[in-house]
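Quick review question:
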C-alpha cells in the first residue's frame, strides 16, 4: 500500500475546501478528496497538518514606501506569528520527502489589525485553476486495494501541462535541511497601491539570510521522519533566525491569473524588510487562520482564481478544526 506521506507533494495550504467561483467544482469535492488521501484527521488542519509555530518581529525597509501605503511598511517594527509546516493533511508526514514546505505569517499592525501572507518552498502551484487541481487529486485516490494507478496520474499530467511545473521542481530540488534554510515563495501575485492609487503587481519571497541548504541524498535516507522542529529549536538556542522579505516586481504583461506559471527571472527584486525569528514552540498559531486575502490597505489581491477562493476555504477549514471535525 502506498504511504500517505508519499502523496504530500501535492498538498498545499488548505486552499480548496470551500465554495469556488465555478459551479463545476464544489467545496465538498475537495473535502472528500482530502479525506480519502489523508484520512479525516479531526481537529487537525486540512492542509499542512504538521508544523511548528515561531514568533518574531518584522522591521520594514524604506524601499517599500515608494510602492505601497500599507501600515506594514510605516511602523518601525511589527510582531509576527509564523507557522512553518509540511505539505499535506498527514500530521505524521515524513520530513525527508520531496514535498513542499509551507509558511504562514501573520503580522500584527500598530492599530491592532493583521496582515497575512502564505507561501510554499515551490514557486508554482500544481494546476492553473481549481478544476485542474481537483482533477489531479482525484487521480491519486487509491483503489479498494490501497493502490494508486500511476499510469492514470501520468496521463492526466500529460493532458494538463499546468500540473507538471511543481512536480518537476520537486524532482530537481532536494528537501530543505531546516525550515530556516530554504526560500519561501508567494505563489500568487498581488498589487501594491500607493498614496496616489497607482498599482504595481508583485509576488513576495521570504529568503533566508543564512542562505539555502538542502538535504543530501544520504541525509534523505538516514534522517528520522521528524527532525525539523528540533532543528529549528536548536538553531534558535544560539541566536535569532533571519529572513529578508522581498517583492518581485511584475511587468504589465506578466501573468497574474495562473499560479502554475513562472515569472521571468530578470524581474526587479526589492527588499521589503527583515523578519527576525526569536522563539519556537509557541502555541499561538493554533488559533490563527492564515488567510492570505487578509491584507492591510495599500496591498490588494490579484485576479488569480485560486487566491480568490481561499478566504471561504480557509474559514470553513478553520471552523472544522476548532470544532474538532
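Suggested answer, residue by residue:
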Amino acid at each position: 500500500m502506498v504511504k500517505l506521506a508519499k502523496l504530500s507533494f501535492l498538498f498545499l495550504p488548505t486552499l480548496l475546501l470551500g465554495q469556488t467561483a465555478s459551479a463545476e467544482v464544489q467545496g465538498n469535492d475537495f473535502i472528500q478528496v482530502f479525506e480519502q488521501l489523508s484520512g479525516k484527521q479531526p481537529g487537525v488542519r486540512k492542509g499542512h497538518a504538521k508544523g511548528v509555530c515561531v514568533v518574531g518581529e518584522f522591521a520594514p525597509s524604506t524601499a517599500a514606501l515608494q510602492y505601497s501605503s500599507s501600515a506594514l511598511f510605516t511602523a518601525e517594527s511589527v510582531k509576527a506569528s509564523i507557522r512553518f509546516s509540511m505539505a499535506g493533511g498527514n500530521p505524521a508526514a515524513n520530513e525527508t520527502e520531496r514535498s513542499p514546505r509551507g509558511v504562514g505569517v501573520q503580522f500584527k499592525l500598530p492599530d491592532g489589525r493583521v496582515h497575512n501572507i502564505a507561501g510554499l518552498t515551490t514557486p508554482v502551484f500544481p494546476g492553473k485553476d481549481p478544476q485542474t487541481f481537483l482533477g489531479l487529486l482525484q487521480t491519486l485516490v487509491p483503489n479498494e486495494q490501497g493502490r494508486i494507478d500511476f499510469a492514470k496520474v501520468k496521463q492526466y499530467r500529460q493532458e494538463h501541462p499546468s500540473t507538471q511545473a511543481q512536480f518537476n521542481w520537486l524532482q530537481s530540488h532536494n528537501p530543505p535541511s531546516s525550515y530556516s534554510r530554504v526560500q519561501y515563495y508567494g505563489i500568487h501575485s498581488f498589487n501594491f497601491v500607493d498614496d496616489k492609487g497607482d498599482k504595481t503587481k508583485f509576488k513576495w519571497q521570504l529568503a533566508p539570510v543564512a542562505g539555502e541548504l538542502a538535504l543530501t541524498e544520504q541525509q534523505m535516507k538516514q534522517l528520522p521522519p521528524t527532525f525539523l522542529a528540533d532543528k529549528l529549536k536548536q538553531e534558535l538556542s544560539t541566536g535569532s533566525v533571519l529572513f529578508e522579505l522581498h517583492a518581485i516586481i511584475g511587468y504589465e504583461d506578466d501573468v497574474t491569473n495562473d499560479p502554475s506559471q513562472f515569472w521571468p527571472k530578470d524581474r526587479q527584486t526589492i527588499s521589503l524588510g527583515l523578519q527576525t525569528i526569536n522563539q519556537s514552540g509557541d502555541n499561538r498559531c493554533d488559533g490563527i487562520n492564515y488567510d492570505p486575502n487578509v491584507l492591510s490597505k495599500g496591498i490588494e489581491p490579484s485576479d488569480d482564481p485560486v487566491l480568490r477562493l481561499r478566504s471561504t476555504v480557509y474559514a470553513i477549514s478553520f471552523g472544522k478544526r476548532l470544532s474538532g471535525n
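Why it works: Residues 1-22 have pLDDT under 50 and may be disordered. The two ends are 26 Å apart (CA to CA).
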